Amino acid sequence: MSDYFFYAAMLRFVANKTEAADPGAHAMMAELRAVADAASAGPRVTVAADRLELAARAFAGFAAFLQKQILPEAVALGNAGAEAQLRWAVDVAMAGVNTLLGRAALVEERCAVELILPPPP
To answer: Where does the chain show beta strands of DSSP type E?
Structure first.
């Protein structure tokens, strides 16, 4: 089992909890599931060149969901372990947003982007 199993589980949880009637939302949740599959195998996550903005939006929504819905509960319960994992997940997701959007905006000829997850808490 990967050290990033908890992160993969969070990604899948958010993807499964999000209503995806809209085709754009459905595509973002599929992207979260793809990232979860990659994180289950280890710290390297590759995002296809044609999905950079989509993945960035998916990461941003994931981070927002954790910050608004889940993190306050972990803090209120005094669960330091869960709080550390949640804060790490939010930070990693937002770093992914910055990397993906930066690459999408600056690179004329797009290519896949490999994100390397930092060590988990």
So the answer is: 44-47, 113-116
CA distance 92 to 17: 20
Tens digit of each residue's pLDDT (9 = 90 or more) over 69-84: 999 999 999 999 999 9
Residue 87 lies in a domain: yes
Q: Is residue 20 part of a domain?
A: yes
Q: Is residue 121 part of a domain?
A: no
Neighbours of 104 (CB within 10 A): 18
With beta carbons less than 8 A apart as the criterion, state whether 62 and 16 touch.
no
Rounded Cα–Cα distance for residues 28 and 98 (Å)? 17
Instruction: Yes or no: say if 87 and 120 are a contact pair by the CB < 8 Å rule.
Output: no
What is the C-alpha to C-alpha distance for residues 115 and 59, in angstroms, rounded to an integer? 12
The pTM assigned to this predicted structure is 0.92
What would the two tokens of residue 6 be? Answer: 């908890």
Number of separate domains in the chain: 1
With beta carbons less than 8 A apart as the criterion, state whether 32 and 58 touch: yes
For the record, the structure tokens of 98 come out as 């910055």
